[in-house]
Amino acid sequence: MKHRFLADPLQQLTHAYRSHMRRAMQASGVDLPVTHVRAMKGVALIPKCTAQLLAVRMQRDKAQVTRVLNELLGAGLIVKRGNPEDGRSQLLELSAEGQALMLHVAELESATAERMTRGLSEEQIEAFIRTANQITDNLND
């Protein structure tokens, strides 16, 4: 296999996945950019989440993440509370509305995963996940 052609199928897969998710979200009434959904996932998954931790996880500068967080706060999808361990920072959590939205997004992602893996065996799916994780690790070293 010629490695120089590896980028093409990766870009096609990424584009197809994002396009499908964007259409599915719009069709179900979710009107949020992908960056906002990623931020909400981070808030949900990072223990004692702060804007700084989220910026590191998303590999974005803190100013960009802060802008997204302010929009999510304004929409009532996340809440801030004081950080008892560090008075200079605030902890981020999903609001009840944000939790409900993320459950809905998880359902859309699950349906998309079902569609993506149609016709693939469990072994093929597991091999793909291992391969994709190894490639990611190689690039992040």
What topology emerges from the helices and strands here?
Blueprint lengths: L6 H21 L6 H12 L5 H8 L3 H13 L3 E5 L7 E5 L1 H21 L5 H19 L1
Antiparallel strand pairs: 1-2
Strand order in space, largest sheet: 1-2
CATH architectural label: Orthogonal Bundle
By DSSP (H or I, 4+ residues per run), the number of helices equals: 6
CATH class: Mainly Alpha
What summary fits the major beta sheet? 2 strands, antiparallel
Q: In the CATH scheme, what's the topology name?
A: Arc Repressor Mutant, subunit A
How large, in whole angstroms, is the Cα Rg?
Answer: 18 Å
Mean pLDDT metric = 92
Question: Segments where pLDDT lies below 50 for 5+ residues?
Answer: none
Number of domains: 1
Domain HTH marR-type: 3-137
GO molecular function, one term: DNA binding
Protein name: Transcriptional regulator, MarR family
Keywords: DNA-binding, Transcription, Transcription regulation
Describe the structure.
GO terms for molecular function: DNA binding; DNA-binding transcription factor activity. By secondary structure, this protein is mainly alpha-helical. Helix content is 67%, strand content 7%. Helix 1 crosses helix 5, helix 2 crosses helix 4 (62-74) and helix 2 (34-45) packs across helix 5. The radius of gyration is 18 Å and the shape is globular. The chain starts with 6 loop residues before the first helix and ends with a helix. The mean pLDDT is 92.
Describe the structure concisely.
The protein is mainly α. It has helices at residues 7-27, 34-45, 51-58, 62-74, 96-116, 122-140; strands spanning 78-82, 90-94.
